């Protein structure tokens, strides 16, 4: 089993290296004014750019706009591309930064997280990525509530949203995420740890609110069930008789 797993891992690494080499070749051609090469880069990665953006911003239209803007920035800055890095890392960085800028502009005053990373001592104390908190998508798989998962993610500060999306949804490693978001490896691991904890706290807060709402409804009599019951047939006859007597007295 281990040999099979090692073989699959080596195969994936080799496929990634080949994809990176192809991307570099396309970038070099695009730098030489080859429009078809740039179009091929867009075709290869537009789906990924959109997916990353969509997991961070609230609508399909916003994600499409950000993906388009990302490729415009790639085109404008092709000459500055560093071939020591993968093209996808560069693209992720542009998309993520655009999303963070977008979220900061739209962000409401209240946030689940009001603090930042804290001092260096707090970051350095976390030497390993903490998996004790459930990953956000595990809630979606267990409860089939993907839309609420996105709502809870959206309630987190942008720097937590970005690392959670890149790590948990896109499956990137911490070193690559560090390059994308412009932070240290340790800071990325701290953000993952803190982001998962904040996610769980907000998820549980919403669950308590739902339970409290259901309890209040039951205590108040269940809404529609608390309406007065319909009159019985005997009550109807007595009421009709009383009305007849009243009419006879008036006449």
Features:
Rna Polymerase Sigma Factor, Chain: A, mainly alpha, 11 helices, about 250 residues
SSE map:
Elements: H1 2-31, H2 35-54, H3 60-76, H4 87-106, H5 120-124, H6 136-143, H7 146-154, H8 158-169, H9 174-181, H10 185-219, H11 233-250
Helix pairs in contact: 1-2, 2-3, 2-4, 3-4, 4-9, 6-7, 8-10, 9-10
Quick summary of this structure?
This protein is mainly alpha-helical and 251 residues long.
Explain the overall architecture.
- The chain has two domains: 10-106, Rna Polymerase Sigma Factor, Chain: A; 125-220, Orthogonal Bundle (Arc Repressor Mutant, subunit A), CATH 1.10.10.
- The protein is built from eleven helices and no strands.
- The termini are far apart.
- With 251 residues, it is mostly helical.
- Helix 4 packs across helix 9 (174-181) and helix 8 (158-169) packs across helix 10 (185-219).
- The radius of gyration is 29 Å and the shape is elongated.
- It has helices spanning 2-31, 35-54, 60-76, 87-106, 120-124, 136-143, 146-154, 158-169, 174-181, 185-219, 233-250.
